[in-house]
Design brief:
The chain has about 220 residues and is an alpha/beta fold. It has one domain. It has helices at about 5-15, 90-105, 120-135, 155-165, 175-180, 190-205, and strands spanning about 45-50, 55-65, 110-115, 145-150, 165-170. It has a 5-stranded mixed β-sheet. Strand 3 (about 110-115), helix 3 (about 120-135) and strand 4 (about 145-150) form a beta-alpha-beta unit. The longest helix has 19 residues, at about 190-205. The N and C termini lie far apart (about 40 Å).
């Protein structure tokens, strides 16, 4: 298989990401890249728009980590049996791409989703590492929205919430019968459990701590 350039991967994985709902970024606390000591912000391939809590329209780099997927959901363009061009970003490539776009003021944040490669935990672990490196190593003060993998461990979802401004989970289909018919490898109860755990964690972190009397930071 031919080795793809980052530009080619961006074309494939930004196009594949257009089917993911990025939502408005309501409910997230605004990060100030100036006060945090981070670097600049604002507005191509892979750039979409969303809304900040204060009503501002912000530009996001919207990509998939990979469109390879172990699942064969009949409604998904990236299903394992689909005849589409496949690509996979490394963690390094996503971090560098995000920072390059950010420094040039093309974007104010990142929306990252992914197909599931090898396992939910491996995929989610790479997404968390992207967010961690952006925040901790690159001092990225922009907006991060991670589309979490429902079957990933609670520990990884919690780690994601430490670095992301927003977490979301795909509900997939409105009824259990629909999931069984169109995505038989997925379990509706697992998706609901993941959503419930995330909600509890958000509610838990919303309470001020006894020591600081301030709420711990966790993605809305």
């Amino acid at each position: 298989m031919a080795v793809l350039s980052v530009r080619e991967k961006l074309a494939i994985l930004s196009d594949a990401a257009k089917y993911d709902a990025s939502c408005a970024s309501s409910g997230s606390a605004k990060r100030d890249s100036l006060r945090s000591g981070g670097i600049g912000s604002t507005e191509g391939s892979g750039i979409c728009h969303s809304y900040a809590p204060d009503g501002r329209c912000i530009s996001l780099l919207k990509i998939l980590l990979t469109n390879f997927c172990i699942y064969d959901c009949s409604y998904c363009i990236n299903r394992s049996s689909s005849n589409v061009r496949r690509a996979r970003f490394s963690v390094d490539e996503v971090v560098k791409l995000t920072m390059d776009f950010y420094r040039r003021n093309y974007i104010e944040g990142l929306f990252l989703s992914s197909g599931v490669i090898r396992s939910p935990d491996e995929t989610m672990g790479e997404m968390v590492e992207v967010a961690r490196r952006l925040r901790i190593e690159e001092k990225f003060g922009g907006y991060i929205h991670l589309k979490t993998i429902p079957e990933a461990s609670a520990e990884l979802i919690e780690k994601a919430g430490l670095y992301a401004d927003r977490l979301s989970i795909n509900v997939e289909l409105p009824t259990d019968e629909g999931v069984k018919k169109l995505a038989p490898e997925k379990k509706p109860e697992t998706i609901r459990l993941s959503m419930a755990k995330l909600r509890r964690k958000i509610e838990e972190k919303a309470e001020p701590t006894l020591q600081s009397r301030r709420r711990e930071r966790f993605a809305p």
